[in-house]
Amino acid sequence: MRYDKDHKDRTHRHVLAVASERFRRDGFAGVGVASLMKDAGLTHGGFYGHFRSKQALVEAVISEGLEDTLHHLETAATDIESLVDFYLRPEHRENRAQGCAAAALAAEIVREPKRARVAFTRKLARIIAHIRSLLPDRSEHRAQAIFALLVGTLQLSRAVSDRSLSDQLLQAGRIAVLALADSRIEDT
């Protein structure tokens, strides 16, 4: 069987997309190569034509996932308020498999080898730079704190079993981010 020249690229992107959803939903350790490839509609052996190891796939998913998060933030947010409204919405809370890679994977990434954390750090810097560009004072520290508040708020709202408390956490995070963005705290 002959494939067109773009077949390998399309298949590679498809495996990445399936892995990204599975890793965000089930964690890195909760996803095996065989089950991942089955979900992608491919054979287990075909995996190694695209990635040298599961670790290489993890690194690619981290990089692509945060790139996707950045793209969504750049598209949805023209100011801090629209960024907060986009990020801390109930639909984002409910959709972990397609939501922010940082919120879904941060606890996983901390246990990964340095190469995965380096990939995360590079993309994180770009997300923070975007947030910084939305701030009137362009404060790096404030942008870092805002993203940390957004990610932590989203993670906690997903973790609790009480929907009312989850909604309250989203609202509290929204209030805190907007207050921080508008504060007169010196950037040290």
Q: Your description of this structure?
A:
By secondary structure, the chain is mainly alpha-helical. It is built from 9 helices and no strands. It has helices at 7-26, 33-39, 54-76, 80-87, 90-94, 101-109, 114-134, 140-159, 163-182. α7 packs across α8. It is elongated and about 65 Å long. It comes from Terrimicrobium sacchariphilum. Residues 32-51 bind DNA. GO terms for molecular function: DNA binding. It holds the Pfam family TetR_N.
Low-confidence stretches: none
Mind telling me the CATH superfamily name of the domain at 56-182?
Tetracycline Repressor, domain 2
- The CATH topology of the domain at 56-182 corresponds to Tetracycline Repressor, domain 2
What is the architecture of the domain at 56-182 at the second tier of CATH?
Answer: Orthogonal Bundle
| Main β-sheet description | none
CATH first level of the domain at 56-182: Mainly Alpha
The best one-word shape is elongated
> With helices defined by DSSP (H or I, 4 residues minimum), what is the helix count?
9
* Rg (C-alpha, Å): 18 Å
Structural class: mainly alpha
- Share of β-strand residues: under 5%
What is the β-strand count?
Answer: 0
Order of helices and strands: HHHHHHHHH
Distance between the termini: 62 Å
Helix proportion of residues, in percent?
A: over 70%
What is the average per-residue confidence, as pLDDT, rounded to a whole number?
93
Keywords: DNA-binding, Transcription, Transcription regulation
Organism: Terrimicrobium sacchariphilum
Protein name: DNA-binding transcriptional regulator, AcrR family
InterPro entries: Homeodomain-like_sf, HTH_TetR, Tet_transcr_reg_TetR-rel_C_sf
